[in-house]
Amino acid sequence: MTLTGLATARGLAGGPAFIYRGHGEVPVSEYAIAATRADDEVKRLNDAVAVTKRDLEALIAALRERTGRADIRVFECHLMIIEDEFLMNEVVGRIRNGLVNAEAAVRQTMDGARSQFAKMNDPYFRERVRDIDDVERRLLKQLTGFESNPHLELKEPSVVIADDLTPSETVQLPKEFLLGFATNGGSPTSHVALLARALAIPAVTGLVDIVSRVEAGDTVLLDGTNGEVTVNPDAESLARFRLQEKRSREAVAMDGAALPGALKDGGSVKIFANMHPGIPVAALKENRAQGIGLYRSEYLWLNHEREPTEEEQFAAYKSAAQFASTLEGDGSVTIRMLDIGGDKTMKGISSKEANPFLGNRSIRYLLSRREALRMQMRAILRASAFGKVRIMYPMVSCVEELRECARELDVLKKTLASEGIAFDAGIETGAMIEVPSAALNAGALADYVDFFSIGTNDLVQYTMAADRGNEAVANLYQPLNPAIIKLMSMTLSAAKEKGIPVAVCGESASDPVVGIFWVAMGVDALSMSATYIPVVSKILSSLTRADLDEYAKVPASLGRDATAAGIFAACREWMSAKLPGFADLLS
Ligand code: PEP
Ligand code: MG
After folding, report:
1. pLDDT of 356
2. Per-residue pLDDT tens for 272-295?
3. For 341, which of 31, 303, 363, 489 is 20 to 30 Å away at the CA?
4. Right CATH number for 2-23+150-238 from 3.40.190.10, 3.50.30.10, 3.40.140.10, 3.50.50.60?
5. Ligand 1 site: residues with CB under 6 angstroms?
6. pLDDT score, position 279
7. Ligand 1, from 275, 276, 339: best to mutate by most atoms within 8 Å of Cβ?
8. pTM higher than 0.90
9. Distances (CA, A) of 517 to 188, 474, 546
């Protein structure tokens, strides 16, 4: 039996199934209290909050000790929830004004928060419901003294099958026995998915009824690349799977000497990682990213009910800069200014527009709200004293925008200097090329910036007029459409003429066929989710510049009426002919 779900974290895993049924709900009785008891209930709540905080801090410290990595951010986020004054004041208010016990007040408040999150457009934000569940469970356990057995009884390497996993449950799974996991709940943007990728644990989510279809001890083969779970395979399928597992392990292994991005004959491109505040950074180091090529700053807004202050932004950017400087190679962080609007909506900021994707978003929004723009620029400038920081402007569509940004930056530099605040006076600025007009007019834009970074996610969306999040037009989502290739080529020639570097930071950079094609066309850097760095690097290390020149000619060889699908197939064929192990690298 093969079940199909969402490909959540790449990789293969096979072994006995361990069915995890979760901690279950904490049983809570809700009752009215006399006004004279309100103080006692608030004290009970405060004690529970204090212990929960201590537990979370201890867990973070232990994780830092044990793995020095990843999972920590999730629990920092839980700490933020529990330290959220607004939320906790609401709980206290429910006790004092609603005269209910602390457990009831916690549950009612969290129910309210859950329904707020669930209504949000942004799937990343919607997924935060799981974090609220987790924090609520911790608090209720403190208040009720309810003891569940959080320790999973995993005794041998297993594939964990669960209805859903909270972030706490995910990190408490003993990693040495965790081969992979398959769940009904979760989505590619859930915290669990982010953790799985950060920890390099293959995962399939979004399955239907997996818990009742698999029994403990069944043999399960999990394919996180294709989103498939096979239960009790026949001997032949099992042997095929084992062979594939071995091949892909061997295929990705690098010799360890050269930095990712090195070509076979000495040339190289830079390989950066994309990240945003709130996701684990350990994978960047493990996969040897040379820096952060795209820091999606908008997540500081998306994760909060209000706009972050200059200090909050500064703290986040500073820590990104300090972390990036510990990476091998370039060690820079490219902080993209607030890219809000379109699919990234935020209450209070995003106004109702008939066409949000064509509306007052990203750099347009910032230029229409100068205080917000200046606050973010100041925070970035201040962080530039702590590492190699670059500023990147999102959704640029014309030169006026860059001219205005340059002017604002100049003024701010003077102000900071007069205040005696340290910053990098030579800070580089860049434009994202993700709107067709920017690619078409790249020559003019190049006069105002030090680098370009091509956002293929949006460039494809705007060029093909196909919503990047709409499955019904997913067939038009074509990074290798000849029109996109032309825009890439125009951007590259404009940049070369001016002598500025070009990166690609859209998802296509991590696709072994497409990302390498951009390198063949002449981009200087790719920026992608860190876990995909090894595969792309492995391919690059097997190719010479002459090979890449030949690869770049593949689309043209197909003639004028070539389709995106035809170009992709021909590129893939070229790769397979050149690299005998290519298919193994894709699994
Ligand atoms: C892009 O558009 O390709 C990009 C990298 O930005 P985002 O996906 O955040 O819009
Ligand atoms: Mg974009």
Report:
1. 85
2. 999 888 666 887 998 899 999 999
3. 489
4. 3.50.30.10
5. 294, 296, 339, 434, 455-458, 505-506
6. 67
7. 339
8. no
9. 26, 21, 13
